[in-house]
Design brief:
five-stranded antiparallel sheet; single chain; five-stranded mixed sheet; about 375 residues; alpha+beta; disordered C terminus
């Protein structure tokens, strides 16, 4: 019988010891993990925290932190948002990592990400929230350094491209002027060389205008303009590339654009020229315009009326790895390309308060879609807009 009692007590002690061992393991993880962990009561009071969180926020110890409200861990401007997220976690169960501006005890701030999960008692009432806090300072610095390096690389490409292009143009100008001097006894040859030097000067002027538009541009001189007036200059591109055909599609009630017609004409010319050059065997470049009403803001465009213009081709397409860089100055996938066309397009569209989006599939073609503000005075009254 004594053996039976020992056996019964052993069975009772085994689950208790297993539970105690499990708690010890969890506490070891809690105390040693690098991220901050805190336990919040249903009223937002800090009940417990691990050493990493205490150190992260500059408190002297756990007793110095506990009984404070969780909102004290973020900057004053962020507290209302944190409280809203805290209340939401009891509704949805958990919230993903969200970035806040953390506040240390001494008042200094630093970026943190905080995720949380709610725990409930047996009756389903809110019990506590477990939060994971990560110091994002190093990650933010690494991202800033990456962006800085990327900008420096872009500036290097830009400076190198400008130097290369202007060097070639100056060489053409100086070379033709020198040859003109040697042909002083042959007026027709002098004129020929002067014409070639003039062509190089024209290309230098176009390059300078493109760089100015990309760099600062100047405020566009906007006015209500019909799209058909803007695209009238595309006929010249058609004559330069007889292998490709330009098809323009637009509804009869298309709204007027609020734009600088010269700058937007350059946008469309660059897009059509790119599309034409992408179709090595010829084809059709489709320019399709529609009315679009944005009922809600769509970054960077506020709600309102827009004209959407899409330029599509069936050319070689753009590789996925190149898509993020297509608006970088002097980035081009064509050996003969200058790499300023899409940079200028992006600059002009942005300065008009519009948006540009590119989708492409290698071997199937590319579609470039731009949104440009529409003139409110041209809104039709006989029905809703297209799009």
């Amino acid at each position: 019988m004594q053996d039976d009692l020992h056996h019964e007590h052993g069975e009772v002690r085994a689950p208790e010891e297993a539970l105690r061992a499990s708690e010890q393991r969890l506490r070891a993880v809690f105390d040693t993990v690098a991220d901050g962990i805190l336990i919040l009561g249903a009223d937002g009071t800090i009940l417990d925290a691990n050493p990493a969180l205490v150190e992260m926020f500059g408190y002297g110890g756990l007793e110095d932190l506990c009984s404070r409200r969780a909102r004290t861990l973020v900057a004053p401007a962020e507290r209302e948002r944190l409280v809203a997220d805290f209340l939401r976690v009891f509704v949805v169960g958990r919230v993903p990592a969200t970035t806040y501006l953390g506040a240390r005890k001494d008042g200094t701030t630093f970026p943190v990400s905080l995720s949380g999960a709610a725990l409930f008692d047996r009756e389903g009432r809110p019990d506590c929230v477990v939060g994971i806090v990560r110091d994002e300072t190093l990650a933010r610095r690494a991202e800033e350094e990456r962006l800085r390096s990327s900008r420096l690389e872009s500036i290097g490409h830009l400076a190198g491209g400008i130097a290369h292009d202007f060097n070639n143009l100056l060489a053409a100008i100086m070379g033709n002027l020198s040859l003109a001097r040697l042909c002083a006894d042959h007026p027709e040859r002098v004129q020929e060389r002067l014409d070639m030097a003039d062509q190089a000067l024209q290309r230098a002027t176009e390059l300078t205008q493109g760089l100015l538009t990309f760099a600062r541009g100047g405020a566009p001189a906007v006015r209500p303009v019909a799209l058909e007036d803007v695209v009238s200059g595309l006929d010249a591109l058609q004559s330069r590339s007889p292998a490709a055909r330009i098809e323009i599609r637009s509804p009869p009630d298309l709204w007027l654009l609020t734009c600088d017609p010269v700058q937007v004409a350059r946008v469309l010319q660059n897009l059509v020229l790119n599309a034409d050059q992408a179709m090595l065997g010829g084809g059709t470049v489709v320019l399709e315009a529609t009315n679009v009403l944005l009922e809600e803001a769509c970054d960077p465009c506020p709600a309102g009326r827009y004209v959407q213009v899409e330029v599509r081709d069936t050319g070689v397409g753009i590789p996925p790895e190149d898509l993020p860089r297509i608006f970088d100055p002097y980035f081009t996938t064509r050996p003969e390309g200058m790499g300023l066309g899409l940079a200028v397009v992006h600059s002009i569209v942005s300065r008009h308060g519009g948006r540009i989006h590119v989708r492409s599939e290698v071997g199937s073609g590319t579609a470039v879609t731009i949104l440009l503000p529409a003139a409110t005075a041209s809104v039709p009254t006989d029905g809703p807009p297209n799009g």
